[in-house]
Amino acid sequence: MYKGKQQVALVSVFAAILLTSFKFIVAILTGSLGILSEALHSGLDLVAAVITYFSVRISDKPPDTSHHYGHGKIENLSALIETILLLITCAWIIYEACERLLSGNTYIEVTIWSYVVVVSSIIIDVNRSRMLYKAAKLHRSQALEADALHFSTDIWSSAVVLFGLVCANFGFFFADAVAALVVALIVLFISYRLGRRAVDVLLDKAPADIAPRVTDELMKFPEVRAFHSLKIRTSGPLTFIKLNVHFPPEITLQHVHDLCNEIERDLSNIIPGCSVFIHPEPHNPDHITQDDNLKP
Q: What is the pLDDT of residue 1?
């Protein structure tokens, strides 16, 4: 399973090397800012793909004496680094595009290779993003999902550059610089999404969609009278759930133990990759607080 994650990440690295080299060569030959911005974008794609490859290798390591919850957050850290790299690229693209538009120096040489590199990029990115999305879903990898999301935006940015080249071919050379600005805006948007999600996980923000699923599952057990102190955190592909559950005081310790095991097993089935810790308590209606979640 883990080798599958690493193989997909490695394929992404080789694809990034191919695209980056091809785009830089054509950008130098044509002088197209749109293609150059795509080449720099692909260069950061390469850096991001390498970071993703090493992050999935590290995140797959089991917990040890220094990392009791495993190494999953390295995937979220890699996504944050990828965001910072993308923001740096956006700043440069916007600066260069605005300078060309303001100075009027927008002429570029459009050749058949301009179209070949952009169309090839779109084809490769379509296949790469599909492969990464499939692997991300299979392995519950946020690093691979971030890579897939990143490369899916490359498809749209390449399409914008292609439009700029077509306009330049008819004499509207300013369209190339405008296309570069649109690419930068697309990258800024995806950077914001990636960065916000990475920071949320690194700061242990509780996923909004998991708490209702835990509540619904607990309500299925007639022995559960109430629960409180539900805490949820994620780390890479893993989810850690901790809560206190009230049981009838008259049932045996063995029965409570069996119920806890059953609840943990059911939660693991509906939330893949989760680790559940339940602290059982005897239910006392006279000691209910505002934090307690009672069954109707």
A: 46
As a whole number of angstroms, the distance between CA 131 and CA 12 comes to 9
Contacts of 219 (CB under 8 A, 6+ apart): 295
pTM: 0.67
Q: Residue 277 CB: number of other CB atoms within 10 A? A: 12
Where the chain has pLDDT below 70, the residues are 1-4, 33-34, 38, 41, 105-110, 142, 150, 153, 286-296
Proportion of the chain in helix, strand, coil states, percent, rounded to 5: 70, 10, 20
| Same domain (yes/no): 161, 287 | no
**Spatial contact of 108 and 174, defined as CB atoms under 8 Å apart:** no
* Residue 83 confidence (pLDDT): 80
For the CA atoms of 184, 186, 188, 189, what is the dihedral angle to 10 degrees? 170
Q: Which pLDDT value is given to residue 198?
A: 84
Q: Which of 202, 232, 254 is the last residue of a domain?
A: 202
Report the pLDDT value the prediction gives residue 289, as an integer from 0 to 100: 63
Say if residue 115 is in the same domain as residue 222: no
Same domain, 81 and 127: yes
* SS3 of residue 109 by DSSP: coil
Q: Fill in the amino acid letter for 95.
A: Y
pLDDT value of residue 247 = 93
Based on the domain organization, do 188 and 234 belong to the same domain?
Answer: no
Query: What is the rounded distance in angstroms from the CA atom of residue 9 to the CA atom of residue 16?
Result: 11
| Contacts made by residues 95-100, CB under 8 angstroms, sequence distance 24+ | 96/33, 96/36, 96/37, 96/177, 96/180, 97/33, 97/37, 97/177, 97/178, 97/180, 97/181, 97/184, 98/181, 100/33, 100/177
CATH code for the domain of 257: 3.30.70.1350
Cα-Cα-Cα-Cα torsion 184, 24, 161, 174, nearest 10 degrees, comes to 90
